[in-house]
Amino acid sequence: MSEKKFPVITITREYCAYGRTVAQALSKKLGVDFYDRDIVNKTIIETKALDLDAKEDNASESNVEKFLKDMLGSIAAYSSSFDKIFEAQKGVILDMAKEPCIIVGRCANIILKDAGIDSLDVFLYADMDHRMERCKELNPDMDEDQLEERIRKVDEDRKILYKNFGKTNMYDVHNYDLCINVGAHGIDKTVEMILDMISE
Question: pTM higher than 0.85 for the full model?
Fold first, then answer.
């Protein structure tokens, strides 16, 4: 992959638009690492802000993720401590981008752009029916109202992150090279379209 035009792929996504699933499939196809919650975990290790209790189950949140989301949702004027966490996360992302990889979320596309690092920046979205179906798979104990609230809350958290630290709108298509409706095209076709972009 090092000879490709875009040695690093970033994936920004709506919640339950199959971002992690697509990243895993790309990782297998290309033989490179992909990073998702690992970025947060390494950040917290570096800042020593919180003991890790990470869980592999996609349906569960680690203490790290809850910590970050709590801070996003409860602080209007962001504290210097959170700024330090984000700066540490930025350093982790820049270090990962030294080698071909796939990075999911965390404003990675903006961080790499600001650092002058080439990347293929992808945005994944889906209609609510597909997202509700996926959310139910990840949260089987939730009823329909809870699923909708979960989707709304996570989307809002991600928008806030992009606004405050990426200084941009997550939904601005100008931030991406490729925007794909995963609900309409399916996972396999989505992966194929991304692979087509990097092989041009």
Answer: no
pLDDT digits (tens, 9 = 90+) for 155-172: 998 898 888 888 899 999
Name the residue among 185, 180, 158 with its Cα closest to residue 15. Answer: 158
Q: Domain spans of the chain?
A: 13-195
Q: CATH number of 13-195: 3.40.50.300, 3.90.550.10, 2.30.30.40, 3.90.70.10?
A: 3.40.50.300
Q: Which residues contact 7 (CB under 8 A, 6 or more apart)?
A: 1, 99, 100, 118, 119
Cα dihedral sign, 40-42-47-53 = positive
Q: How far apart are CA 17 and CA 191, in angstroms?
A: 13
